[in-house]
Specification:
Length: about 400
């Protein structure tokens, strides 16, 4: 196993033409988090304009499917890969991707985003083939790098992340294939399955970091540990993913509400174990805990949606996608951006406001449609999301583009 040289400093002066040495290519979290923040603002702004009637939609696929793809496979996918490729270096001691390779990987992801809007007369659905091609290259390259790092270090404890990212890649390709075939309802079922895969990833990562961050942030001597519950949650989540997938694509008669109710119960219990009143005073902690509470509540509401018309499945699902995945991503991006650039884990008021805006976006999108006009709730939620990620970029973009404050590489 190759050892990382953590003592060699970055060059004091980097010329513009030395592309591979730019700080932004130091580790995967830098360009991937930056790209995710920009996509979160631009794609949701466009979605808001479409909802408001100020922008037209010209593509052959429904705008809702583009929105779902970019938020899940584009935004959440790139953050997940950025986090894993960065964390794997810490877990294994094996150098992660950086320099020109990371630059090419980032460019591939950017091209995939723009390929949706390629329109050539006489070549039907060329844009979808281009998106699929570039997305596949990006996924496979990222998974290959992650796999190589974990296998070199024989980090069996982390092999699960190879499986999860591979399944997300498979869902992405199946989704695009179904859109090409205009099987739109099946494509939406694949998106929902991929959301559950992302929930699995969030659950595993949260189980490792939330108790640790809480104990460290509040100066508690012992962190909460629940290995048996963690294992039960893992296998229950895998079962729920398989059960839901089968119910949507093959066996419509399967009852799935009870599966979500069971998962919600387990996550509720774990969030109670982790809870400490002191987290409310620390933005980097309350945001993580709120995101995890949103997961338990969201899964419970999803379960209710199968038995009652009081809440719609898609509304409940958005408490998970916005409140859990969105807020957890935002909180983790801020924390990793600070921690991996040797900056103190203290954030200004504007970051706390960003957390509140995304939390508000989740509540508005999931709960207000039952009270307000659905369309108005969607627009307000999208606006809050855009404002939250603008604040993230304002604070974190300079951090992601500049070198570490201690002068070390990474």
């Amino acid at each position: 196993m190759k050892v990382i040289n953590l003592t060699e400093p970055m060059p004091k002066k980097i010329h513009v033409y030395q592309l591979s040495k730019w700080p932004v290519w130091g580790l995967a979290f830098r360009p991937f988090f930056l790209g995710a923040g920009i996509l979160a603002v631009l794609s949701m702004s466009y979605w808001l304009l479409i909802l408001s009637g100020y922008a037209s939609w010209q593509l052959t696929m429904p705008a809702t499917l583009w929105h779902a793809h970019e938020m899940l496979f584009g935004f959440a996918g790139v953050v997940a890969m950025g986090f894993l490729l960065t964390a794997a270096q810490t877990w294994t001691g094996v150098p992660s991707v950086s320099g020109i390779k990371l630059c090419l990987l980032s460019v591939t992801w950017v091209i995939a985003r723009g390929s949706f809007f390629v329109d050539v007369n006489g070549i039907s659905q060329l844009n979808l083939y281009l998106v699929g091609g570039f997305q596949l290259v990006w996924w496979l390259a990222g998974i290959a790098i992650l796999t190589d790092m974990l296998l070199q270090a024989k980090s069996r404890h982390n092999y699960l992340f190879i499986f999860i990212t591979a399944m997300l890649c498979a869902c992405n390709m199946i989704f695009l294939s179904l859109v090409v075939l205009q099987k739109f309802s099946f494509a939406l079922s694949i998106v929902d399955t991929a959301v559950l895969l992302m929930v699995l990833l969030v659950g595993v990562v949260a189980g490792r970091v939330v108790p640790f961050f809480t104990a460290r942030g509040l100066n508690i001597t012992e962190q909460v540990r629940s290995p048996k519950l963690d294992k039960l949650l893992l296998f229950s989540s895998l079962f729920a993913i398989a059960w839901y997938f089968l119910s949507q694509l093959f066996f419509n008669t399967l009852s799935v509400g009870w599966v979500f109710a069971w998962l919600a119960t387990l996550h509720f219990y774990r969030s109670i174990l982790w809870w400490h009143a002191g987290v409310l005073k620390v933005p980097l902690l309350w945001s993580l805990h709120f995101a995890y509470w949103a997961l338990a509540i969201g899964l419970a509401l999803i379960a209710v949606s199968f038995y009652s018309p009081l809440i719609l499945f898609k509304d409940a699902l958005h408490l998970v996608t916005v409140g859990t995945i969105g807020l957890m991503i935002l909180a983790m991006m801020v924390r990793v951006s600070h921690g991996h650039t040797s900056r103190p884990l203290q954030v200004p008021v504007l970051v706390n406001v960003a957390f509140m805006l995304i939390a508000g976006a989740a509540i508005v999108r999931a709960l207000l449609p039952a009270i307000l006009n659905h369309h108005l709730a969607w627009q307000l939620s999208a606006l809050l999301w855009v404002l939250g990620f603008i604040l993230f970029l304002f604070h974190c973009a300079p951090i992601l583009l500049k070198r570490r404050v201690d002068g070390r590489p990474g």
